[in-house]
Amino acid sequence: xxxxxxxxxxxxxxxxxxxxxxAKKATLHYTTPGLDTKTAERxxxxxxxxxxACNDLHLTLKHVHWNVVGPQFIAxxxxxxxQVEAVRGFADDLAERIATMGGSPKGTPGAIVAExxxxxxxxxxxxxxxxxxALDVVYRGVITSYREGIEELGDLDPITEDMFIAQTExxxxxxxxxxxxxxxxxxxxxxxxxxxxxxxxxxxx
Length: 205
Prior knowledge:
The chain is mostly helical. It has helices at 18-22, 37-67, 73-100, 109-115, 128-153, 158-180, 197-204, and strands at 68-69, 126-127.
């Protein structure tokens, strides 16, 4: 779950915070003590954007888990599942935070498709390096969007900011796991300069 609008799903922010700026604002009838309604509505929008991103990301990771082939299959196949479970947990935490603030979390596939600013993951059955190259772009986008949210939340709600920070720490760790497979002994990534999943898959493969 990061983005260039509707075509490079994860290139710049494949689960993009831009979506939170354009999504229709929900009216809250109550929120947590100490927050005014306008602030809470903005925080809920940021949370909902990340909820869409995490729901999309855990499905994308599972897709990769099912579709990797090649000599490193078992290592990559087994590396992905803990990431799937963690990101599913992130989605649950984000949804519960929305509800805590008086919002109504949206978790349906239709809501993701209607409100996301990225396209579906573009790689099907492919070698492990190709998928890992594409995931490098995915994670770049997801993490960039989380960091944008953290920056904004610093002035809005430190509780939600802490949640974003904790999730970003784990996402950056997972990104490192992916990049370790793409890095040469000099520390250069095979995906350097690639700004789309297809380009990164080609460079890594």
